[in-house]
Amino acid sequence: GCRGLWDNITCWPSAVVGEMVVKQCPIYFSYFANAHGNVSRMCTSHGWTELYPAPYAAACGYDTNSTPTEEAVFFDVVRIGYTVGHSLSLISLTAAMIILCIFRKLHCTRNYIHMHLFVSFIMRAVAVFVKDVVLFENGESDHCFVGSTGCKAAMIFFQYCIMANFFWLLVEGLYLHTLLVISFFSERKYFWWYILIGWGAPLVFITAWTITRIHFEN
């Protein structure tokens, strides 16, 4: 049979050989088109067939009149916009890190947590730059279709940085909650738990995600 498939738009359930699976067009196509069509795939002994009756855009009534040049210009503008934003953020955060490191009076558990949060933002910005360099050098725009090891490593690093960034935001909330709830507590002891949550927990989830992707959709 055929394993379940996620084609980055629709989730296709597992099926036996000879079974045809029919899915409605994703709901977000209705924002751009009035047509409400279906797409289907057949499970064969060689795996899933291509979409029938046509790719998503055509089957779901999406207007594809925009020229490739217009789309390229649009995506270039978006890429330039977030590149400038991440660059300014990277410069500001680096300056903040230098200030916090130089002045010893600012060294305390609260600011140590802030520094780790800043590092997670810096890593997130760097991961975006690395991802763009790898993907655009391969002539791709979103996914690692080429299957190169470097591209996959860049995407894993990118996902880890995003998750670590959110976990350090969680740690900031946990620290404030601890200050409000617990009157006397060892900040140093709790700090190592914060580090474990901020950097360790994302590693567990990303490792599981990576193994799952390699096994089911390499």
Structure summarized in a few sentences:
The protein is mainly alpha-helical and 218 residues long. Helix content is 60%, strand content 8%. Helix 2 runs antiparallel to helix 3 (109-137), helix 3 (109-137) runs antiparallel to helix 4 (149-181) and helix 4 (149-181) runs antiparallel to helix 5.
Return the string of H and E elements. Answer: EEEEEHHHHH
Number of helices: 5
- How can the largest sheet be summarized? 3 strands, antiparallel
| Residue share in β-strands | 5-15%
Molecular structure report:
With 218 residues, this protein is mainly alpha-helical. The protein folds into 2 domains: 5-60, GPCR, family 2, extracellular hormone receptor domain (Hormone receptor fold, Irregular), CATH 4.10.1240; 70-217, Rhopdopsin 7-helix transmembrane proteins. The chain is built from 5 helices and 5 strands; from the N terminus they run βββββααααα. The chain has helices spanning 56-59, 68-102, 109-137, 149-181, 187-216, and strands spanning 5-6, 11-12, 20-24, 38-44, 47-48. The strands form 2 sheets. It has a 3-stranded antiparallel sheet, with no helix packed on it. A two-stranded antiparallel sheet has the order 1-2. The longest helix has 35 residues, at 68-102. The protein is elongated and about 70 Å long. It starts with a strand and ends with a helix. The model has no long low-confidence stretch (mean pLDDT 85).
